[in-house]
Amino acid sequence: MEPFYALTEVRGEFFETVMDYFSLGREDDDMTLCYLNAEYDLSGDLESPGGCYLMLKERELRELGREELLREDRKIAGGRSLRMSCISEKPFPGAEQLRAVQQYAAEQGLKLSGKLHSYFLNQFEEAGAVRYLIQMFAPLA
């Protein structure tokens, strides 16, 4: 997982982060490239995110020439992680998908720790229903 930066305050609800996305995007065109990130504590409750915020990868901020946003107090360090993708009915994974990540890691002999990060990459329609392609990163211990 490459390092990234939280660009907004941590919200308790995913919907609040969606509102931040539209508000920030109106003020700054570069912010329309942000990811809506949801964090899950792998040792805790997987039913809902522990926090949601907008983020961009360090590499992307540098490519945009936005080094002023590379604040250490907002940095989420990268590192070795298990990366998985899934399709969901919501723009964030459900508890069953998160448990599947944990199960897969255990089957592979991998130990996960910390917070799993997820963000949706794409929204599409399938059989008349909206679906989301989600990327998940679970840090390896």
Summarize the structure.
It contains three helices and seven strands. With 141 residues, the chain is α+β, with helices and mostly antiparallel strands.
List the main descriptive attributes of the protein structure presented here.
Multidrug-efflux Transporter 1 Regulator Bmrr, Chain A, seven-stranded antiparallel sheet
Average pLDDT for all residues: 92
Number of domains: 1
| Estimated radius of gyration | 15 Å
The total of beta strands comes to: 7
- In what order do the strands lie side by side in the largest sheet? 4-1-3-2-6-7-5
From the spread of the alpha carbons, the general shape counts as globular
Q: If helices are DSSP runs of H or I spanning 4 or more residues, what is the number of helices? A: 3
Uncertain stretches: none
Strand content: 35-45%
User: Which structural class should the secondary elements be placed in?
Assistant: alpha+beta
Could you state the order of secondary-structure elements as H and E?
EHEEHEEHEE
**What is the CATH C level class, in words?**
Alpha Beta
In this structure, how is the largest beta sheet organized?
7 strands, antiparallel
CATH architecture: Alpha-Beta Barrel
Write the layout of secondary structure elements.
Elements: E1 4-6, H1 14-27, E2 35-41, E3 51-57, H2 58-63, E4 75-76, E5 81-88, H3 95-107, E6 115-126, E7 129-139
Antiparallel strand pairs: 1-3, 1-4, 2-3, 2-6, 5-7, 6-7
Could you explain the architecture of this structure?
The protein is α+β, with helices and mostly antiparallel strands and 141 residues long. It has a single domain, classed as Multidrug-efflux Transporter 1 Regulator Bmrr, Chain A (Alpha-Beta Barrel). 23% of the residues lie in helices and 35% in strands. It is built from three helices and seven strands; from the N terminus they run βαββαββαββ. A seven-stranded antiparallel sheet has the order 4-1-3-2-6-7-5. A hairpin with a 2-residue loop joins strand 6 (115-126) and strand 7. The longest helix is centred in the first third of the chain and has 14 residues, at 14-27. The model has no long low-confidence stretch (mean pLDDT 92).
